[in-house]
Each structure stands twice: as structure tokens, then as C-alpha cells.
From TrEMBL:
Keyword annotations: Cytoplasm, Magnesium, Metal-binding, Methyltransferase, Pantothenate biosynthesis, Transferase
Subcellular location(s) per record: Cytoplasm
Catalytically driven reaction(s): (6R)-5,10-methylene-5,6,7,8-tetrahydrofolate + 3-methyl-2-oxobutanoate + H2O = 2-dehydropantoate + (6S)-5,6,7,8-tetrahydrofolate
Protein known as: 3-methyl-2-oxobutanoate hydroxymethyltransferase
Assembly: Homodecamer; pentamer of dimers.
Organism listed in the record: Tannerella sp. oral taxon BU063 isolate Cell 6/7/9
Record InterPro entries: Pantoate_hydroxy_MeTrfase, Pyrv/PenolPyrv_kinase-like_dom, Pyrv_kinase-like_dom_sf
Protein family: Belongs to the PanB family.
A Gene Ontology cellular-component term: cytoplasm
SUPFAM superfamilies: Phosphoenolpyruvate/pyruvate domain
Cofactor field: Mg(2+)
Pathway annotation: Cofactor biosynthesis; (R)-pantothenate biosynthesis; (R)-pantoate from 3-methyl-2-oxobutanoate: step 1/2
Encoding gene per record: panB
Active site: E191
Sites where the protein binds 3-methyl-2-oxobutanoate: D53, S54, D92, K122
Length: 273
């Protein structure tokens, strides 16, 4: 095991993430959607576990994150929280549960916090959801922001390519990042933007900035678990590093099991009563 992994078993809090940024310690974040995987990821020493609305893609097989419902996010959030002892657990507010108005946003955030017992929520967007962010924060619910490629807006973007390459979009992103910090968000995810822009935002903000496809100059990294473990082989963006080939491991194991049944090898004498 790498010696860089903290052996500190204290619960990770929003304040501890802030301290990690201050002392230059990188923050490790990964998605999880179920009890068993969350337990492995937490025990491995992950700092932050995101119950991402990417569950819509990797768990439910949808093309976008838009179809997943608040009830479904709560189901995933509950399963993950039951397994986690140390990591900070963040649950995504899904599309349609907070954009309408700030009362709806607060009601959705309260449901997530009450029913999942997660530590905080994540919301996509900047100035356009300002009122919702303020109202949720006023209720004492910590918010992680999310700017850059925000998958809930895929129908507006029309493409999953890198965002904020153009000056105007980059300027709006910097403005939104400052606003989220000013409003009181405790951290920010920057997805698929040029590395130099992400580095600039991370160095300007006091709150931790976690990147996905945003280069190494930010305060931490997040990936989708199915992508980094190689469960999902259809998605190969440049920013993805695969740490395992579970697709092959699982396929081999399942085929060995099928073979053992067909050849009458399983179960053997010792595997029965
Ligand atoms: O839903 C998700 O998995 C996310 C990450 C890509 C940051 O929002």
C-alpha cells in the first residue's frame, strides 16, 4: 500500500478538507452507489465519496444523468452512507430537483440529508442557481459546487467536449467560482476544462477545488468508480486513468463459473451438505 495514504481514521469533514488544501495535501474523491463498493472504497482510505448522479449512466444504463430521480439518489445515498465510517459523503441533487426555485431546492436538499444521513450535497451551476444555493446554505446544509462541463446541462451544450476554452466562457466560470466561494460553498468540482484555467481558479479560491479532466494544478481529483476500475470499457476520455481491468476479471470469473457448472465440476463433494 502506498505510504501517501493517510492512516488517520478520523471522520473527514468539510473543515478537514479545507485544512488539507491549506497544507497542500491532495484530496482523493471517487464515486460509489452501493453498500459493498462504498465499504471497500472507504476502508481503502478515500477522503470523499460522491454518490454521483452518474448512477443514472453506470447503474441504470441511461445515456445522460437527466432521468435519475430524487428518490433514486436517496436510495443510493442511503446504501453508501451505511457502509462509510471515514470518508465525507456527498450526494448529488439530481436534474429537476433544484433548478425550478429555491424552495424546491431546499426541500430536495432536506430530503437528502434527512433520509440518507449524508454529510452534504452537490449542485451543478453558478449564478443561475444563486438563490437556491443561498437558501440551502441558510438551512445549514453544506454544498459542493460543480462548474465547467455540467452533465445535467448536456442538452444545452450539445457535446461532451472540453468547456471554457473560449475567453467569455472562461471568464464566466471564474466569476461563478468566486461567487460560489463567496456564497459559502465548501468545495468546488471543475469538470473537463483547460488545466491552466483550473489551476488559476484553485490558486485564487480558499476552498478546495477538485478536478475531473481539469489537470493536476487543482486540490484533488475525482473519477467515476466504474471508469477507473475498468468495469465500463466504452468510455475512454483522455483524462481517465484505469487502475484495474475489472471487466476482464469479472468476465473470466463468470465464464469459469459457467464452465464448472456445465462440466459438473461445481459443486464438488466438499461444497455440499
Ligand atoms: O455524477 C458524478 O459522477 C459527478 C462526477 C463526474 C464529478 O458529478
Amino acid at each position: 500500500m502506498s505510504t501517501a495514504i493517510a492512516d488517520d481514521s478520523r471522520k473527514v469533514t468539510t473543515h478537514r478538507l479545507y485544512e488539507m488544501k491549506q497544507r497542500g495535501e491532495k484530496i482523493a474523491m471517487l464515486t460509489a452507489y452501493d453498500y459493498s463498493m462504498a465499504q471497500i472504497i472507504d476502508r481503502a482510505g478515500m477522503d470523499v465519496i460522491l454518490v454521483g448522479d452518474s448512477a443514472s449512466n453506470v447503474m441504470a444504463g441511461n445515456i445522460t444523468t437527466l432521468p435519475i430521480t430524487l428518490d433514486q439518489m436517496i436510495y443510493h445515498g442511503k446504501s453508501v452512507v451505511k457502509a462509510v465510517r471515514r470518508a465525507l459523503v456527498v450526494v448529488d441533487l439530481p436534474f429537476g430537483s433544484y433548478q425550478g426555485n429555491s424552495k424546491e431546492a431546499l426541500a430536495s436538499a432536506i430530503r437528502v440529508m434527512k433520509q440518507t444521513h449524508a454529510d452534504c450535497i452537490k449542485m451543478e451551476g453558478g449564478a443561475e442557481i444563486r438563490e437556491s444555493i443561498q437558501r440551502v446554505l441558510c438551512a445549514g446544509i453544506p454544498i459542493m459546487g460543480h462548474l465547467g462541463l455540467t452533465p445535467q446541462s448536456i442538452n444545452k451544450f450539445g457535446t461532451y467536449t472540453v468547456r471554457a476554452r473560449e475567453e467569455a466562457e472562461a471568464a464566466k466560470l471564474v466569476e461563478d467560482a468566486r461567487l460560489l466561494e463567496e456564497l459559502g460553498c465548501f468545495a468546488l468540482v471543475l469538470e473537463k476544462i483547460p488545466a491552466n484555467l483550473a489551476t488559476r481558479v484553485a490558486s485564487e479560491l480558499r476552498i478546495p477545488v477538485i478536478g475531473i479532466g481539469a489537470g493536476g494544478g487543482v486540490d484533488g481529483q475525482v473519477l467515476v468508480m466504474h471508469d477507473m476500475l475498468g468495469i465500463n470499457q466504452d468510455f475512454s476520455p483522455r483524462f481517465l486513468r484505469r487502475y484495474a481491468d475489472l471487466h476482464t476479471v469479472i468476465t473470466d470469473a463468470v465464464q469459469a463459473y459457467i464452465g464448472d457448472i456445465k462440466t459438473h465440476d461445481f459443486p464438488n463433494e466438499k461444497e455440499q451438505y
